[in-house]
């Protein structure tokens, strides 16, 4: 082994002298053995050539690893800085900006709704709300008042519910994010006395604001108007996803009725302003402002007096016959405008506008008569004999019969073991199409629909094809949500769903409006208007005009023709005359005493396999006969015979409309 320099004391008097001592294979204790730095780094030869040196030896691989770690750390820090600067820079810049400059929305006034006479049905009343910006409240605790004290102070004024909501809100937005700088509504629809107390209590609370908003007020001419007008409510997360970015999570939107369908027009366009805030998050000055645009006002075709009268008479008739559910529609046959639309039972839109109580809401949803359900547009019912004018028009158009075709009604038809009866024992004798409509002769329509012996009828396909032309089996497009399509059965449907073949009896039932066919009262009124106006199917609609905030006409809603010229004029006239005969000598005879001429069709529709259940009572008609101004359709669920329930309602309303009311 090569000699290694070691430090060694000798016995000379010079204690600081070094001597060279060659030792062979000499070793020091491991803990004290020192090697030259040069030997570790440069090797033995170079280490020997130098003078006296002292130090530790370090391996080159370790140094390399150290350099790699240092470089990696540096790159990591550099990357993190770049990520923060380039990718997250705008976020933190915006976060910092929110500490000084805030963006606030300026609420537009929601549009007013008028009836046809410009009487206000819906307007806005001022209400107060409490809003909190969580980031301000958590970052700047006011002197001498903790967040817990703030929560308690607000709870003392608004109640425990508001305190709980605020506590949850602060926990939810504990992190300092952009969302924490967005205003959150803690309570709304606050009364004036409470609002004044809140203003005093919160003036030094950071991020807490008492603001002025509006609440919808429904001036209902009748409760059934609620089904038309609808109501507004706080936006749901699902609605927010659909409506954003124009909406905030604190906004109110239309939930049902016209409020929902015409939401965009009623809402208008919100403005916005940029403000500079102080240390408490309170406004100091306005930096920039974009003006709001108030929503459009709606002018409806609804006649409030007619709406009230129709509801009044329908309610009275429900009591008279011991029923609980009914619906009625009145429309203008010349353009499809809805003049009145009633569904009973109903509800009060103001209950929802004022934040409905759990007790009232529970009563509504647990009521078996479903007061929230708009049966006039969403209810699907077997049409009964009110469907016969459609079958008659189809048979005339397809040359199955003519005005002179006579069929003997002997009380019904026998098909093997099955008997299909007329409603009159012994039948009506020789019957043409006008008499068949006037007296609702089932036998005649059995022939028209399914044929008999050598007489070929329309068959199911042609019946449903024409029913579709008259607007059945599809929504008509009224400006209300939840419109039902009704149902038109087919051979294929029955084989697929019921696993049964289609029998001739199914066609017979379809031809008289029984079996699986269903329609809404609105659809029955719409196809009745086709006979009233000479052959045009209009889209029913409630809104006539959009008005600006100064009540000037901004847009006229033009009538929309869905279909025309699908039934020849002579055939329409023949069916009209049959409906007129219903009034002059048939099942609608009680209407002959009206102050104007009229036409109509009755119907009693079985809806249950239990024949002891009372039928639905139908009437649909129009007046005056020569130049119709109004179509009226009435259904009383489980009301019994048409002449006992539906017809009296129509008669009293038409007497009032053309007689006692002032024009």
From TrEMBL:
Question: What is a single Pfam family found in this protein's UniProt entry?
Answer: Transpeptidase
Gene Ontology MF terms = penicillin binding; peptidoglycan L,D-transpeptidase activity; serine-type D-Ala-D-Ala carboxypeptidase activity
Bilayer-crossing residues are 63-83
| Keyword Cell wall biogenesis/degradation among UniProt keywords | yes
Q: Where in the cell is it found?
A: Cell membrane; Membrane
Q: Record's InterPro entries?
A: Beta-lactam/transpept, Beta-lactam/transpept-like, PBP_dimer, PBP_dimer_sf, PCN-bd_Tpept, Penicillin-binding_protein_2
* Residue ranges constituting the Penicillin-binding protein dimerisation domain according to the UniProt record: 106-286
Claim: Cell inner membrane is one of the keywords in the record: yes
Keywords noted in UniProt: Cell inner membrane, Cell membrane, Cell shape, Cell wall biogenesis/degradation, Hydrolase, Membrane, Peptidoglycan synthesis, Protease, Transmembrane, Transmembrane helix
A Gene Ontology annotation in the biological process aspect, one of them, is: regulation of cell shape
> Membrane topology type, per the record?
Single-pass membrane protein
What region holds the Penicillin-binding protein transpeptidase domain?
327-655
Q: One GO cellular component term, please give it.
A: plasma membrane
Matches recorded under NCBIfam families? pbp2_mrdA
Give the protein's recorded name.
Answer: Penicillin-binding protein 2
Q: What species was this sequence derived from?
A: Candidatus Falkowbacteria bacterium RIFCSPHIGHO2_02_FULL_45_15
């Amino acid at each position: 082994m090569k000699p290694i320099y070691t430090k060694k004391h000798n016995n000379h008097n010079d204690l600081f002298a070094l001597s060279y001592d060659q030792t062979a294979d000499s070793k020091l204790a491991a803990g004290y053995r020192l090697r030259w730095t040069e030997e570790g780094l440069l090797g033995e030869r170079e280490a020997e050539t130098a003078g006296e040196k002292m130090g530790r030896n370090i391996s080159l691989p370790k140094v390399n690893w150290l350099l790699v770690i240092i470089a990696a750390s540096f790159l990591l820090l550099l990357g993190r800085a770049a990520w923060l600067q380039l990718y997250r820079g705008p976020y933190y810049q915006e976060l910092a900006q929110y500490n000084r400059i805030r963006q606030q929305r300026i609420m537009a006034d929601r549009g007013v709704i008028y009836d046809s006479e410009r009487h206000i049905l819906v307007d806005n009343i001022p209400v107060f709300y409490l809003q909190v910006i969580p980031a301000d409240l958590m970052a700047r605790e006011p002197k001498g008042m903790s967040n817990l004290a703030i929560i308690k102070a607000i709870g003392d004024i608004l109640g425990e519910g508001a305190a709980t909501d605020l506590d949850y809100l602060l926990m939810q937005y504990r992190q300092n994010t952009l969302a924490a700088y967005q205003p959150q509504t803690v309570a709304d629809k606050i009364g004036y006395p409470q609002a004044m107390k809140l203003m005093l209590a919160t003036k030094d609370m950071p991020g807490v604001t008492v603001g002025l908003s509006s609440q919808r007020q429904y001036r209902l001419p009748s409760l059934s108007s609620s089904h038309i007008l609808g109501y507004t409510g706080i936006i749901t997360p699902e609605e927010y996803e659909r409506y954003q970015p124009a909406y905030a999570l604190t906004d109110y939107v239309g939930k049902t009725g016209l409020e929902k369908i015409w939401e965009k027009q009623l809402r208008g366009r919100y403005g916005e302003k940029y403000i500079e805030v102080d240390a408490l998050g309170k406004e100091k000055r306005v930096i920039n402002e974009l003006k709001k645009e108030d929503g459009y006002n709606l002018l409806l075709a609804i006649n409030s007096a007619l709406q009230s009268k129709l509801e009044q008479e329908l309610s009275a008739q429900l009591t008279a016959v011991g029923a609980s559910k009914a619906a009625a529609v009145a429309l203008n046959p010349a353009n499809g405008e809805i003049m009145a639309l009633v569904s009973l039972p109903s509800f009060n839109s103001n209950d929802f506008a004022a934040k409905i109580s759990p007790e009232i809401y529970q009563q509504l949803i647990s009521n078996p008569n479903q007061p929230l359900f708009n049966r006039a547009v969403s209810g699907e019912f077997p049409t009964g004999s009110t469907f016969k004018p459609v079958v008659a028009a189809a048979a005339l158009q397809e040359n199955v019969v003519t005005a002179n075709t006579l069929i003997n009604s002997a009380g019904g038809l026998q098909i093997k073991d099955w008997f299909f009866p007329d409603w009159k024992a012994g039948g009506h004798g020789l019957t043409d199409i006008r008499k068949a409509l006037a007296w609702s002769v089932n036998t005649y329509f059995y022939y028209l629909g399914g044929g008999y012996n050598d007489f070929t009828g329309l068959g199911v396909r042609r019946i449903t094809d024409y029913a579709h032309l008259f607007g059945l089996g599809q929504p008509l497009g009224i400006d209300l949500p939840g419109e039902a399509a009704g149902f038109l059965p087919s051979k294929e449907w029955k084989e697929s769903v019921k696993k049964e073949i289609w029998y001739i009896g199914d066609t017979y039932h379809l031809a008289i409006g029984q079996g699986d066919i269903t329609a809404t009262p609105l659809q029955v009124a719409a196809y009745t208007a086709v006979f009233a106006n000479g052959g045009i199917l209009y889209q029913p609609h409630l809104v006539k005009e959009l008005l600006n905030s100064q009540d000037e006409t901004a847009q006229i809603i033009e009538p929309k023709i869905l279909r025309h010229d699908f039934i020849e004029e002579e055939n329409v006239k023949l069916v009209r005359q049959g409906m007129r005969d219903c009034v002059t000598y048939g099942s609608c005879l009680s209407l002959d005493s009206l102050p104007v001429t009229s036409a109509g069709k009755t119907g009693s529709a079985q809806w249950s396999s239990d024949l002891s259940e009372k039928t639905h009572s139908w009437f649909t008609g129009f007046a005056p006969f020569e130049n119709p101004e109004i179509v009226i359709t009435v259904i009383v669920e489980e009301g019994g015979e048409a002449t006992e329930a539906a017809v009296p309602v129509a008669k009293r309303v038409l007497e009032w409309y053309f007689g006692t009311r002032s024009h």
